[in-house]
Amino acid sequence: MKLLIVEDEVKLADYLSKGLSEEGYVVDAVHNGVDGLHSAMEGQYDLIVLDGMLPGIDGMAVLAALRQSRQTPVLMLTARVRVEDRVRGLKAGADDYLVKPFAFSELVARIETLLKRAGASRPLDGGVLLSVADLRVDLARRRATRAGQRLDLSAKEFQLLALLMRRSGQVLSRTEIAEQVWDVNFDHGTNIIDVAVRRLRGKIDAPFDQPLLHTVRGMGYVLEPRPL
């Protein structure tokens, strides 16, 4: 899943980007309201973490403009602690509100709750465990197993597998995979996605009887159990 962070404190934005990437999300970060609104309107994000006080356009104005055409879940961050400020943010269309300073674990929990509410949740256990047939991924521990055997995956292979498992049963195009895992526009002149899928397939399918990762000719890839 892809998140947008709009936060003018660069160190905080970098910290959140790193932490959320480690949680398995693809993260973009911008540092002012103008760039935040442009990215929120032009990009395809599952959730936006939006600071309330931004240079250029403040967070409330960004939220108001966004809500005219987009219902992307928004978690607002603010240093303002007054109840009326939080109420103002929620009435403006924020889906949740988190006061600084906050614990990173609380931020992750709130993001997972909002994604679940939006129908884009991780499917098991409220957030960190993914399962398809005998394939398991623990997002918190960054661990993947199949039939109880530990799978040795690179960081990108883990992200790719997590994406395919979250969207199990759905055909993902090479373009969508490139955007969600590599955060780049797919270049049709390269075979980077096919190479990555082949390597992943060699680790999650080759040693086992039942293949789970399938090619859908002309469309992309899908992870799902099929009858043998």
From TrEMBL:
Question: Which Pfam families does the UniProt record give?
Answer: Response_reg, Trans_reg_C
Q: Name one GO biological process term.
A: regulation of DNA-templated transcription
SUPFAM superfamilies, sorted: C-terminal effector domain of the bipartite response regulators, CheY-like
Q: Which InterPro entries match?
A: CheY-like_superfamily, CusR-like, OmpR/PhoB-type_DNA-bd, Sig_transdc_resp-reg_C-effctor, Sig_transdc_resp-reg_receiver, WalR-like, WH-like_DNA-bd_sf
The domain of life for this entry's organism is Bacteria
One Gene Ontology cellular component term attached to this UniProt record is: cytosol
Transmembrane regions = none
Enumerate the UniProt keywords alphabetically: Cadmium, DNA-binding, Phosphoprotein, Transcription, Transcription regulation, Two-component regulatory system
NCBIfam families recorded: cztR_silR_copR (TIGR01387)
> What protein is this chain from?
Response regulator
Organism this protein belongs to:
Comamonas flocculans
